[in-house]
Amino acid sequence: MQMREQVIAMMESIERLVETDPDGRVFVRLGLVVTLYFPRGHTLEKREAVLECFRDYLDLCGEHLRWWVIEGRRFSPVAKLINRDLAPYLLSPKIDQDPERTWGIFWHGGEHMDDASDYRISAFGQSKFESDLDQDLSFLSATFPLVWLPERREELLRLALLWCERLQPLHGYGGAGIVDAASDGLATIYQKRVYALAKRHPGLEVDYPLDHALWTQKGIKGGNWITVLADVFVAHLGGVDALRSGLGQPFKIYEYRGGVMIVAGENPEIGDRNRNLDTPLYRRLARVLRPIRVVFHPGVHDWEGGFDKEEFESWLARFDD
What we know:
Elements: H1 3-15, E1 18-20, E2 26-38, H2 44-61, E3 67-70, E4 76-77, H3 87-90, H4 93-97, E5 103-108, E6 120-125, H5 128-134, E7 138-144, H6 153-167, E8 171-180, H7 184-189, H8 191-200, E9 205-206, H9 209-212, E10 226-230, H10 231-236, H11 240-247, E11 252-256, E12 259-263, H12 280-289, H13 309-316
Parallel strand pairs: 8-9
Antiparallel strand pairs: 1-2, 2-7, 2-8, 3-4, 3-5, 5-6, 6-7, 8-10, 10-12, 11-12
Helix pairs in contact: 2-6
């Protein structure tokens, strides 16, 4: 079997990891997760950029989306929408007029409104008040089916780079990740399973952007198959040439106005501690990024067997030698 066929077989195998509760609701699955954190999410410029990214996602995945919600309300069926234009909401002058107003969107393709889905896009914008006071970050996060790799690899990388150019993120990442239920209630019940998957497969991203955005203003959460760094972090690491030298092959570095996007090899590393399968590229990346990675981070979803503070900080350092 050729290497390309082996990769496709691996992606199809891990994509079959779909777990349901007794009612048939999907509470966890895997997907290709891309998350970008950017400042000043309340500004019209950033909201326009998010709107363009959302439209890109609709072009690629719109036919698979079944549920939508804004500002944490109850999910509604996409099928009942007259149109999918978010411009009246994202570009609303009310956001400019109220310094304490945040905004948020969440769309997904699960059969049930609570389901975990590998077709999913969410974004959140901090208010002007929080942006000015604590420099809190906003985020855009999108999920795609892992089976799209490697056949649509270059298309996805071009899309990620385009979003970086638009949003000018402070940092971000993308790779194989754990996707939990869209419903917080359902997700909470099965946090032990998410924790177990993350402990076994170090290459899987554990992603709770709403939490991470509060604790990564001064440093990055970490690296993955895709790692996005603004110029300020690149400079801290010695510049683009130092990054290239430190990482070597097969890493690729794509420069854009405002930062770089690092890609660790042809496809994501998953790893498996039960089978002694390592993540060598991610370990090399972690050594280079260590000076800019956050050390302190509170627990995430730790009330039902998830990550408490000590466990999550250990997870952040999982690739350290």
